[in-house]
Amino acid sequence: MRAEETMNKLPANPERATLEGKNKFLGFWFFLGGETVLFASLFGVYLGLRKATNGGVTSQELFELPLVFIATMLLLTSSLTAVFATMSLKSQNFKAMIGWLVITVILGFSFLGLEIYEFNHYVHEYEHTIRSSAWGSAFYTLVGTHGAHVLFGVSWITLLIVRNFGRGLNLYNAPKFYVAALYWHFVDVVWVFIFTVVYLMGKVG
Amino acid sequence: MSAHAQKKKNPIWDWLTTVDHKKIGILYLATGAFFFLLGGLEAILIRIQLLYPENNFVGAQTFNELLTMHGTTMIFLAAMPLVFGFFNAIVPLQIGARDVAFPFVNSLGYWLFTAGGIMLNLGWFLGGSPDAGWTGYAPLSTTSPGNGVDFYVLGLQISGIGTLIGGINFLVTIVNMRAPGMTFMRMPLFTWTTFITSGLILFAFPALTIGLALLMLDRLFGTQFFAAEAGGNPIIYEHLFWIFGHPEVYILILPAFGIFSEVIPVMAKKRLFGYSAMVFATALIGFLGFMVWVHHMFTVGLGPIANSIFAVATMLIAVPTGVKIFNWLFTMWGGKVVFTTANLWAVGFIPSFVLGGMTGVMLSVPPADYQYHDSYFVVAHFHYVIVGGVVFGLFAGMYYWWPKIFGRMLNETLGKIHFWLFFIGFHLTFFPQHFLGLMGMPRRVYTYLSGQELETANFVSSIGAFLMGVATIVMLWNIIQTSVAGKKASNDPWDARTLEWAISSPPPEYNFAQTPLVRGLDAFWLEKRAGNKTMTPAEPLDDIHMPDSSILPFMMAVGLFIAALSAIYSSWAIAIGGLVLTFAMMFLRSVIDYHGYHIHKEDLPSEGVDGK
């Protein structure tokens, strides 16, 4: 069987089969620990400033949950497809992995498109900018930093797909795909907190 | 990619592209030493200004810049890189590794730190240095005119990223790269403190990243985070800064504790007393270090409950620190203590640091802190812990590891002169400052009035500072003299206990020809007691895999430097160009395969096999 041939090509868990892979795997988890503190600081700042509207528009008037809900669904689905990509990596099915990653990237770009539309809408319809109030500063910095992470993630995964498209999975690139997927999950988890703390609490809190 | 290792490389290109942890360690040490001298010069200028009442040697604005740059330089550009220099030079050797986990990232960390350090100091040449104190409190920092604070914000941001990735590197190195048999509880104490310190760096530096990013946004992009008139809140900056800033002081002192824990047992010919208690105390200090940041903000007005909780947490830290002090004393107790220069620093450290610790407990009592706050009492306290702890530790490490790193012995006589001048100068400078503070002299003010009984203590303090300056000149002379005509160092000049002394001085680029087998704590000492000259190998002699050197880290740092400098002057096109350069280098790093190369076992010198 073809599938079994590819199964035997690399050792199990190819992302951690070499010392370099093990180092990348552990180092990336540590890096995500640091990123957690980074976002925690931004959330703290946001919570401290979320009522400081400086007489301008409030979060209740500004946010439209349907739009944010669609964005959330796009990103959560992309996390699921990234899981499928990782599972394909573990079963060493390169084509399936690339397929799932392509879908992940498309979903990520769609999310970014919605976010750009959203920011543009706020700035031009409501004059809610990064300078208009302390809340505006905190909002755009927190959500924008997350958006920058999404942009970095889709660029990174796209680059990995293009670079390795013709040469299949090996012990050198397996850790790279694996940590890119980890990064993507982290970015999704941060969004879950943004959805709760910024948007839901902004509507009802 | 095979035998090119033997080719002679252009030395400048070699240092720019090196990924060898020993060379990067030397780069860190040299750069840190340069900034240490610079920060010391700033300190002496400060003390000349305060030599007499109502002196006008540098004036108020320059004084503000000097004290800001003295603090920032000493903490971020001198102490941090010197600590990282020892991490790099020693830790992989102590755990029996051939390199760190991420050699490329290691190089990137160094170049980012250097780019940030240069950026911070550009203000001296470009119309004004940072002048808002090393803490950069808003709104003083957000409203400070000129570009001075911009250099502070962006310089620290760049060097902070370098420190963060360096911390991750050592965490992974210590978890994954230990030699066979080296369990966690067999690691030398310096490796342990490096491990805990790296954890502190990982969880503390992102808070600084955010604090600085928000300052940058307020200053350069007109946001309102710290502008009270638009609903902003400057206290947020104080929290972010100290959530980073308090762990930072443990980031500095724990490696110094690690150095003392190496030097004292070797110089007393006894194993470290209470090894596991030392490890536990280190971890506990690291943990508690995150719980006490509000003691820097007792007078902000956060209320009696917050102040009490943080006061109690602060007092708790005295417990594990006391455990350490007693363990060092008990290590010396009954030992055959030799007072080499390294050991003099270690022994001198104990009473000096205990004094700083005592004033620390005094400061942790909030009602009393209202009296001490922002006075010279605080200045005296933190110089007793930072100089009496960190700087003494770095000097101890320097005299102890110099032979291993550079292959030459330092002159012991000059070393002892250095120690005594510095030790006396240090106490002369900072001991009177306790009393200046209690008498009401505020810190960070460029002068004081005559007739308030502040003259004598200030004069004595300045004389002490000059003495430390003279001591530093003696140290420099020692370095120059021994590097020209010094005695060559043997593999193990101190009859020491840990793995780094089992290989040649300086070590070959692959460190261990064969990975050593570790059979217990103080691995090399055990082998020597068993009658072996070298470590027992854990593997047969084989080809050694080495990482590729790369210019990309240097170019990434250059890109960020260009971006930051242009952003300060609002040249956005060039700033984006700098960022594009950095991202292009990251792109290249991603698409080019780096498989490294091998040193063939036939090419290894025979010394690696038969020992000496």
Automatic annotation (TrEMBL), chain A:
Gene Ontology MF, one: cytochrome-c oxidase activity
PROSITE patterns, alphabetized: COX3 (PS50253)
A GO CC term assigned to this protein in UniProt: plasma membrane
GO BP: aerobic electron transport chain
Pfam families with a match to the protein in the record: COX3
Cell compartments where the protein resides: Cell membrane
Keyword Membrane on entry: yes
Stretches assigned to the Heme-copper oxidase subunit III family profile domain: 1-203
Listed transmembrane segments: 26-47, 67-85, 97-117, 137-162, 182-202
Keyword Transport in annotation: no
InterPro entries found in the cross-reference section: Cyt_c/ubiquinol_Oxase_su3, Cyt_c_oxidase-like_su3, Cyt_c_oxidase_su3-like_sf, Cyt_c_oxidase_su3_a-hlx, Ubiquinol_oxase_su3_dom
Keywords: Cell membrane, Membrane, Transmembrane, Transmembrane helix
Membrane topology designation: Multi-pass membrane protein
UniProt xrefs under Gene3D superfamilies: Cytochrome c oxidase, subunit III, four-helix bundle (1.20.120.80)
Family: Belongs to the cytochrome c oxidase subunit 3 family.
Name listed for the protein in its UniProt record: Cytochrome (Ubi)quinol oxidase subunit III
Organism annotation: Exobacillus caeni
Lineage: Bacteria, Bacillati, Bacillota, Bacilli, Bacillales
UniProtKB/TrEMBL annotation, chain B:
PANTHER family: CYTOCHROME C OXIDASE SUBUNIT 1
A biological-process GO annotation: respiratory electron transport chain
Domain Cytochrome oxidase subunit I profile intervals: 7-519
Phylogenetic classification of the source organism: Bacteria, Bacillati, Bacillota, Bacilli, Bacillales
Protein name per Swiss-Prot or TrEMBL: Cytochrome c oxidase subunit 1
Protein family (similarity comment): Belongs to the heme-copper respiratory oxidase family.
Function: Cytochrome c oxidase is the component of the respiratory chain that catalyzes the reduction of oxygen to water. Subunits 1-3 form the functional core of the enzyme complex. CO I is the catalytic subunit of the enzyme. Electrons originating in cytochrome c are transferred via the copper A center of subunit 2 and heme A of subunit 1 to the bimetallic center formed by heme A3 and copper B.
Listed GO MF terms: cytochrome-c oxidase activity; heme binding; metal ion binding; oxidoreductase activity
Membrane topology (UniProt): Multi-pass membrane protein
One Pfam family it belongs to: COX1
Transmembrane segments: 26-52, 72-96, 108-127, 151-177, 189-217, 240-260, 272-293, 305-330, 342-362, 382-402, 414-436, 456-480, 551-568, 574-592
